[in-house]
Structure formats: C-alpha cells, structure tokens
TrEMBL record:
It comes from Streptomyces litchfieldiae. Residues 94-117 are annotated as: Disordered. This is C1 regulatory protein. InterPro entries: TPR-like_helical_dom_sf. The lineage of its organism: Bacteria, Bacillati, Actinomycetota, Actinomycetes, Kitasatosporales.
Amino acid sequence: MATSSSAPRPAGPNTAFRKLRGALSPGEFAAAVRRAAGEIGERVSCDARYIGRVEAGEIRCPNYAYERVFLHMFPGRSLTDLGFEPRQVVRRRMPRTGPPTALCPAPSAAPGAGDIDDQEEGDVLRRAFMTGGPAAVASLATLGALPAAAGAARPGGPEAAAVTRAVTDLRLLDDRHGADALYRPAREALRAAYELLDTGARRQAVDDQLHADAGELAISVGWLAHDSGRPALARSHYGEALATARVGGDPALEAHVFCNAAFLAADTGCPREAVRAAQAGQQAARRLGSDRLRALLALREAGGWAGMGDRRGAEVALARAHTHYGRGSVTGAPEWMSFFGDAEFASLEARCWAALGDWPRAGACARQAVAAALREPHFARNTALYAAELAGYLTERGEPEEAAAFGHRSLDLLTQVRSARVTGLLAGTAERLGPARRDATVATFLERRGA
C-alpha cells in the first residue's frame, strides 16, 4: 500500500499522475476514468484535454467527483500520492486582494469546470457580492467567507446555522428571481459548506447537521445549474449530494436527490434513467411517511414512462400520484417541497400528456396550473414557466392567438425572474408561431420576445 506525504507538491507538472497513465494515451486513460466513475455511480465528463490539464499541473486539486473516482481507481493512495496538492493548502493559497475583474464570466461546462482552481473566480464573486452586490444574496456571500475567517478552527453551531440559512435563502431566491442570477454565488457557497464539512465539526450533532444541509445545498445548486442550462454541472452536484446522503445514512436527502435527478434525466432526453431514478427515490421515501413526497416521485416516474411513449406505464404512475397527493398534506411534506402544490402537480401531469402527444389533456392540465399559480404569487419563476408551457401546448393544438397571449403573460413575469428554461420554451414557441405572424397578437409577441 502506498503511503502519503504531508508535504505539499511544488507547482509544476504532475509527474506522479503521468506515471499512473503508463502506456495508455490520454484519450484511453480518460475512457478508463469514465468507466471507473460508472462503477461507483459517478458521472464525470473526462476527456484527453482534462487528463492533459492534470498532467500539466493546471488542476492542483480535483473536484469532489473526480476525487472519488481517482481514489476508487487507485485504492490505498491519497490525493497527494496521485500528485495533487492537499485541498486545504490550495484553498489557503487563494488570492485575497486585487480588484474584481469580472462578476459573471461566461460559464463553461467543459471537464474540470468545477475544479478547485475556480476558487480564484469564487473569491472575486464573493467580494463583489459582499461589497456591491444585491442584498438578497448576502447569506450566500457570508457563508462563502466563513472558512477563510475560521482558519484552522473546527466549525461549530454558528457555522452550521449559516449553512442552514443559506439553504433556506437559496430556495426563496430561486422562487423569486430564477436560476441564472444565482448559480455562481450559490456554487461558491456550496464549496464553502463542503470545506466546513471537510474540516469536521467539534460536536457530532453539528457534524450531522452540516452533512444534511451541505447535501441539501448541493441539490439546490444542482437545480440552479439545471434551470440555467448547465445539465452536466447539475449531474455533478447531484452526484455529490447523493454521496453525502449515503455517507450520512440520510434517506430523506437520498429521496430528494433522486427526485431531482429524475427530473433532470427526463429533461435531457433520458426517460429510462428518469424512471429508474424516480423508482429509487420512492424506495427511499417509503421510510419517511410523506404522501406528498411519494406523489411527486410518482409524477417523476410518470414523466419518464411518457418520455418513452409508454402510455400505460404513465397512466399507472399518474394514478398512484393522485392517490398519494389526495392522502397527503402540506404539513406532512419535507420543507424543500414548498413549491409542490396544486399548480406544480397540474404542470407535471400536463408534461406527461404532452410527451404522449395528447395536446388537449396537456392544455387542460396546464390551464389548471396557471390558474392555481395565481393563488401563489410568490412563486414568480414557476408562474412564468406554467404560462410558457401552456403557450407551447396551445401552439401544438393550433390556437396561435391564445398561445401568444400566454406567451405575453410569461414575458411579463420574466421582468422579475431570469430562467434559461423559461426563455428556451418561449423561443421554441415563437419559432412554431412564425407562420401565424399575420395575427396581431402573435406578431406583437414575436416582436417582444425577439427584443
């Protein structure tokens, strides 16, 4: 068994990692990394370029997903044995001075986009939000600053409370503002939460709370990545949350992860994976006694069956969802399910019928979603989404004027929120409405959306 060294590796090429590759080409080694990831349920988009960056020393410490894969590939070795620097050393080396160069640089979904080297960018983001950014993200910036402020001290109650507050605030911010403006500061807060978790709390109760809340924060950040058009990063965050759930033996967190993973799979054209994830979530949820949670997971499963064109499978899962929803109550649901009311249920059912090509039923359910959303005005992002979905279904039914009217309603709400998901839906609807532009309502919608 190899032994690890506590001395940090000098900057420069990672010769230790290069030796591990042996006679394999970078592409062949990257394929081996992807296979190893699959063996432990991880998802990494490793390619020859990423291996080259590691060997060149550009990646001084890998992100958590790659760390788990590398340690699985080379059991008995530590990160330093693999030629990386200790995570704590890399973080202490982060720059703490200098003007912010760019608040929101262009996002990248390339392999390694979540590497620890992105911490330099995070430091810029953190300063920007703490000194001049919106007050709404103050709790995220505060959390991001905690590990540096704490130094070598082990986290206690105040630090755990900060993570809990960030989870709650992030959900509220997403409801009101959408994902596009929140993903990057939320990602920095997540890194800070895992750094606190890595340090280890002084008391077991605090450590347990940090595990649960760090996992929930990872799910929230994964959702923001999904909603802002970064599916590969969403998968990585969900994988991180699932690992946290299983290490902590937390079935509630595990059910939540699988629920979101099923949604992401269905949304990215992987319906069979959506069914499997939803069924795994239902297995975990059986121990929790929440009918509302089981209803949501049944809806996720129905969406997967519908995506495969299996009407019977979708109908069975939908019937189960209606049964659980009728038995459940808001008070018996997990806190994170505050969004799941009548409007969301109707919207998810509408998506099932749309996937099956049943536009009349999709439109009817979507109308219910929009009507119910008017009773929940604090969910601005969801209301914009429901109106955009209904506009799309009406377009498919050959009702362009009414489709454009609901498109206008969604655009009204996009002055308050930013969601790549909603704007993408409206773009698709606008393209299909092109032939009907002689209608005044349609023409106005197309002009307004284009602007």
